[in-house]
Amino acid sequence: MPNHSSITILMLASSYPRNDSDSASIFLRHLAESLKAQNLAIHVLAPADKVSGEKSENGIIVHRFRYFFARWQKLAYGSGVLSNLKRNPLLWLQVPLFIGSMFFSLLWLLNRIRPDVIHAHWVIPQGLLAVFAKSIYKIPVVITVHGTDAFALKSKLLEWIKRIALSKCDAWTSNTHATANSVLIYSSTPKPHIIPMGVDIQRFASGDRQKLRAQISDSEYIILFVGRLVEKKGVTDLITAFSLLPSAIQQKTRLWIIGDGDQSNQLRALSKELALSDKITFLGMIPNYDLPDYYSAADLFVAPSIIEGQGVVFLEAAAAKLCVVSTSVGGISEVIDDGVTGILVAPEHPGELAQSIGKILTDQSLRQQLAEQAYRRLVDTYSWDSISKDFKQLFQELSRSIS
Hints:
Elements lengths: L7 E5 L13 H12 L3 E7 L5 E5 L2 E6 L15 H7 L7 H19 L3 E5 L1 H15 L3 E5 L2 H4 L4 H13 L2 E4 L2 H7 L9 E2 L6 H4 L4 H5 L7 E6 L8 H9 L3 H4 L2 E6 L5 H10 L6 E5 L6 H7 L2 E4 L8 H8 L4 E4 L4 H4 L7 E3 L4 H12 L2 H18 L2 H18 L2
Parallel strand pairs: 1-2, 1-5, 2-4, 5-6, 6-7, 7-8, 9-10, 9-12, 10-11, 12-13, 13-14
Antiparallel strand pairs: 3-4
Helix pairs in contact: 1-18, 3-4, 4-6, 10-16
């Protein structure tokens, strides 16, 4: 009989922050900690990077499984599984080992801790493994679709796998309606629960603007990008758009790019080719706890994604009251209301992007208006306290159904 005052949740994920400075799937750590604050016991099963084993992290019990020799485990983390496979096809050899190790680690944990609910993040492979485990242990399964699994995994085989997983789970959630609609083509899937990922509003609202602008004139603009340097994030379009800015604007504007990924060298080469090396700074990976200062120092946040389920970085920018320019793809239009809480342009159109950037940079009143409206909406919709309560209610309903 489940203890409803403190039910136990086992979260499955293909990545989870490896330390306090790591940004890999940082929203999962925030979700786990918020659920713990709702009096739930949380375990997380995720792949190891170098060190495997079990560790308590801020009250969350994290179990990290090894799937290959530690020094050669390269499938998870970094640019993400799909980008890592694209960059190095030899990593496909690790895929069956990854899936097998996660599945046997899952079965071992289920036998040991007997959670009330399994919460699988991403349909493939976590969702599929969870429903297989459910057939053995009869534990209810919730699958959360984040975006990559919805928009990028499109082969007939993968769509069949998604259909099986979503039709066999007890409930599934999606971060936006757009993400949900991309998999609702599977007629046998149950109705989704739309529960977004959130943001630590107080932390991102507390950045120190002057800390990073001490040597920068107030008359200069700073454009900020935060994210993985992979094709779907559209950073090539951002650099190209920067090159298309009117000379008068470009001369007093800097572009800060935070992140790393398989396009890093290509993007650096592009900025050099466009004679922008003195205007564009590649800052690499910045510890997540330092990011609020960068958001605060910037004048405009630009992330012209090509594929995006939700985009937590937009919430971080809004919490810092930083105006956002992005693209009308995936679930971004549910996070950003064009002309009300930010500006959206067509994806893969650097010229249109440059026009919007120029317009926003030269209109401080509009920037502030959009940023203020985005912040007000953020507080109402994307606080972790509200989101964790929605998840808790779903988990309680499922755990009661088998009591």
